[in-house]
Amino acid sequence: MQLRIPGPTPLPPEVLEAQTKQMINHRSKEYAELQERLVRRLKEAFQTKNDLLLLTASGTGAMEAAIVNTLSPGDRVLVVSIGNFGDRFATIAKTYGTDVVPLRFENGDIADPDAVRKALSSDPAITTVLATHNETSTGITNPIKELAAVVREFDKLFIVDGISSVGSIEVKTDEWGIDVLLSGSQKGWMAPPGMAMVAMSERAWDAHRNSKIPRFYWDLGRAKKSADAGETPWTPAVSILYALDAGTELMEKEGFANTIARHSRLSAFVREGVKALGLKLVAKDEKNASATVTAVYPPDGVTERAIRNAMRDEFEIELAGGQGELTGKIFRIGHLGYVNEADLQAVLDALKVVLPRLSGAGVGSR
Ligand SMILES: *Cc1c(COP(=O)(O)O)cnc(C)c1O
Question: Ligand 1 center to residue 85 CA distance, Å?
Answer without folding.
Answer: 7
